[in-house]
Design a protein that fits this description.
Layout lengths: L1 E3 L30 E7 L10 E5 L4 E4 L9 H4 L5 E8 L5 E7 L10 E7 L5 E7 H4 L8 E10 L4 E9 L6 E6 L12 E4 L6 E10 L2 E9 L5 E7 L7 E6 L8 E7 L6 E7 L4 E7 L6 E2 L5 E2 L4 E8 L1 H11 L21 E3 L4 E6 L19 E3 L11 E6 L5 E10 L9 E9 L4 E8 L9 E7 L6 E8 H4 L8 E10 L2 E10 L2 E7 L7 E2 L21 E4 L6 E5 L4 E5 L13 E3 L7 E8 L2 E8 L8 E7 L13 E3 L11 E7 L6 E8 L15 E10 L5 E2 L14
Parallel strand pairs: 4-21, 24-27
Antiparallel strand pairs: 1-8, 2-3, 2-22, 3-4, 5-6, 6-7, 7-8, 9-10, 10-11, 11-12, 13-14, 14-15, 15-16, 17-18, 18-19, 19-20, 23-24, 25-26, 26-27, 28-29, 29-30, 30-31, 32-33, 33-34, 34-35, 36-37, 37-38, 38-39, 40-41, 41-42, 42-43, 44-45, 45-46, 46-47
Length: 719
């Protein structure tokens, strides 16, 4: 057993926080539960597989503590370096008990251990690792030990730990064992508690007692129609009879059910993890049979995975807030001014500093962030303030939730360039309307599931106009309706008229659409332009098109590929290729995807992205050539742009390049993880990205000088 002392945020509230304003003189010495603690993890990355906290006064509005960072170091308590599925219980002895799955999924989904934790105050915990395969002879070959939970067995007068296990050749079954007096080990051999009557797997059990009966909720995997069912028994350790109906209220894949009773109410909440959609669903019931979705009433400023909720007292809530710090930005908004780049607001709980990044042209001497408050909350000062020289002190009074003061700064930041989540930016200068046009992937969709493309235009590369949707796969494309990724665009004068060609990825094929205007709308040609890999290529995907018109020959070329790079000459119609010119190009081993080609002073530059867009190390490298389809010369130092942790910038990749007409002035347009939350999002950072622009320079020999990504971005071009 190891004593864990959790590092505390240096965020001590200057006033005593009171969760409820009314207090009777006859109040009992023992305070009733009046708030809720949500214990959860956030994803499958190592940094996400850790215990986190959030609290609520009403169970409908949860706010993350500790800025949604871990409250216990997984490396210190686990055998694998990661923990998942936290379950928390208030014991009959006044102590708190927590169990977690000992599993870091980057090493695979098999595991043999769980972790038992015990605390007297919810802040300081002792922990013990329990490796089932080493403790019990009958389980030496166990494949999985998942989602342990604890309940007090009043008859045995012991704490019972129940969990699912997978033995070789079998299915996942729910077992139980009793913990020892100190909650440091399992003192009885695991026994079968529940199994599927159809021999399917069942996991993620959660037991609650109501009216003398025990209700066991679990995820069943008997059929393709997987979901959550409930089994009922008069006894805690046996006799469970499975009901036929699914109690989850969705057709989406779910797991990790958690059931708890509301304070001072007959209502129960059943919540569960819609893990494939990155969402949580809350339902309500008074009989544990019929459940109604209440998602519209629930808000969270974080994205949980498989967790549990515990009723807590006001004093316990005070202790947690003082230990970890918070800013309940649902009670008071972080500023509603249209000038604020909302996704990039930074709240530094430790130093009580709030940074509001604002758009170009904002008058910092006379700026109103437009903080708004819910009923019972207040903010001061109100109205416009002078942010041009220093931070402005703001008092945030959350009413029933307490009070604190922040130094609020407002700074003009031109990165990200576009408002919202976008990625894989393509940029084009139109000779027809003398404007720059940006075509990105529409991001923020779970697992890259976006289905439309938008266009943006600008005269100065800083102030961008949203020109709307230029191509909607569901409406405008007959052969694909999802995975709209990584577009490219070209302007071509045909028969004296400007035409615009939009190349894009859809369902791992390359399409092309045509318009008379750079902002669209575009008309798809009705079939994929590229639907098969070149002969001999068996890996990778047909994605990430790039189009390049050679200023020397006037010929246009299409490039594409993930895991391989292909170049092929386009026919004059720009919507078909010359098959006999198809060439598998050979960059070095760093090539992953995102080819970008441009020409400067006799050299053809080929840029590409290295690593994975979900990785903080996603970056851009380059080679040069003397031909659009020729051999590559790879400079010794060929890095174009990479992360800068000192600025919190990560995942810089998949770029395009633009030359200012008539000059040797060049800019790189790329995406990065969203700031400030991206680096903490794990896999999700790969589809919550932002488009940025920075200046790009060359040395006298024509080598690209590595670009330093910036938060400030570029200054507007002079007209």
């Amino acid at each position: 057993m190891k004593q864990i002392k959790i590092t505390l945020f240096a965020f001590i509230l200057s006033t005593v926080l009171v969760l409820f304003t009314s207090c009777s003189a006859t109040k009992k010495a023992t305070e009733k539960n009046s708030a809720y603690l949500f214990v959860y993890f956030t994803g499958n990355a190592k940094s996400e597989e850790a215990i986190r906290y959030a609290i609520s006064k009403d169970v409908y509005n949860f706010y993350a503590l500790n800025d949604n960072k871990a409250v216990i170091n997984s490396d210190e308590i686990s055998t694998t370096g990661g923990v998942r599925d936290p379950h928390i219980l208030r014991g009959n002895d006044g102590m708190f008990y927590m169990t977690v799955t000992d599993l870091q999924t980057s090493k695979g989904w098999d595991n043999q251990a769980m972790v038992l934790l015990k605390s007297s105050d919810l802040v300081h915990w002792t922990s013990s690792k329990v490796d089932v395969s080493k403790v019990f002879d009958g389980f030496k070959e166990v494949k999985r030990v998942w989602a342990p939970q604890t309940i007090y067995d009043a008859k045995a007068k012991k704490y019972m730990v129940y969990f699912s296990m997978l033995q070789p050749g079998g299915t996942d079954i729910i077992y139980y064992a009793y913990a020892n007096k100190d909650f440091t080990a399992l003192e009885t051999v695991p026994k079968q508690l529940f199994f599927s009557p159809t021999n399917g797997s069942c996991i993620d059990a959660d037991i609650i007692e109501k009216d003398g009966k025990f209700y066991l909720f679990s995820k069943t995997e008997d059929t393709a129609d997987k979901g959550i069912k409930v089994a009922v028994s008069d006894k805690l350790t046996s006799g469970y009879v499975l009901k036929d109906e699914y109690v989850d209220q969705t057709d989406e894949s779910v797991e990790g059910s958690g059931v708890f009773k509301l304070n001072n109410s007959d209502t129960y909440i059943l919540m569960y993890d819609m893990y494939r959609k990155g969402k949580y669903q809350f339902t309500a019931s008074t009989d544990l049979k019929n459940f109604k979705v209440i998602d519209a009433e629930v808000s969270m400023n974080f994205h949980p995975r498989h967790g549990t909720v515990l009723s807590i007292t006001a004093d316990e809530a005070h202790r947690l807030i003082a230990a970890y710090g918070w800013f309940p930005n649902g009670e008071i908004s972080m500023g509603q001014s249209e000038a604020i780049k909302q996704n990039n607001v930074v709240v530094d709980l430790a130093n009580k500093i709030m940074l509001l990044p604002v758009k170009n042209g904002t008058d910092l001497k006379n700026f109103d962030p437009e903080f708004t408050a819910k009923s019972g909350a207040k903010v001061s000062p109100m109205g416009a303030q002078d942010f041009s020289q220093k931070a402005v002190k703001y008092d945030f009074d959350f009413g029933a939730l307490g009070k604190t003061t922040f130094d609020v700064k407002a700074l003009v930041r031109n990165n990200p360039s576009l408002t919202g989540y976008y990625a894989d930016p393509e940029i084009l200068y139109s000779n027809k309307d003398k404007r720059f046009h940006m075509y990105p992937t529409s991001d923020g969709f779970f697992e890259w599931s976006g289905y439309y493309f938008k266009s943006f235009s600008s005269t100065n590369l800083v102030d961008w106009t949203d020109d709307g949707i230029l191509l909607d796969l569901k409406k405008d494309v007959s052969w694909a309706d999802k995975n709209a990724w990584a577009p490219a665009a070209a302007e071509k004068k045909i028969n004296g008229q400007y035409k615009y060609f939009f190349y894009y990825t859809a369902e791992a094929k390359i399409g092309v659409a045509v318009s008379d205007n750079p902002q669209g709308p575009f008309t798809d040609i009705g079939k994929p332009l590229v639907a098969t890999k070149p002969n001999g290529i068996t890996r990778g995907q047909i994605i990430d098109p790039d189009v390049f018109t050679d200023p020397v020959s006037g010929k246009s070329y299409l490039y594409y590929g993930n895991g391989f790079m292909v170049g092929v000459e386009l026919n004059d119609d720009m919507i078909s290729v010359k098959e006999n010119t198809l060439t598998v190009l050979k960059p070095d081993r760093t090539f992953r995807e995102g080819t970008e080609v441009f020409y400067r002073k006799g050299k053809y530059y080929f840029l590409w992205s290295e690593d994975d867009t979900r990785s903080e190390n996603y970056r851009v490298r380059y080679a040069t050539s003397d031909s659009p389809l020729g051999n590559f010369t790879i400079p010794e130092n060929n890095l174009v742009i990479a992360k800068d942790p000192s600025q919190g910038i990560y995942g810089t990749g998949h770029n395009s390049v633009i030359q200012i007409p008539g000059t040797d002035e060049w800019y790189i347009v790329y995406h990065r993880f969203t700031i400030p939350k991206g680096i903490e999002m794990g896999r999700s950072a790969g589809y919550n990205r932002e488009v940025c622009i920075d200046r790009m320079y060359f040395d006298e020999a024509g080598n690209i000088i590595a670009v330093k990504p910036t938060l400030e971005g570029i200054q507007p071009l002079e007209k």
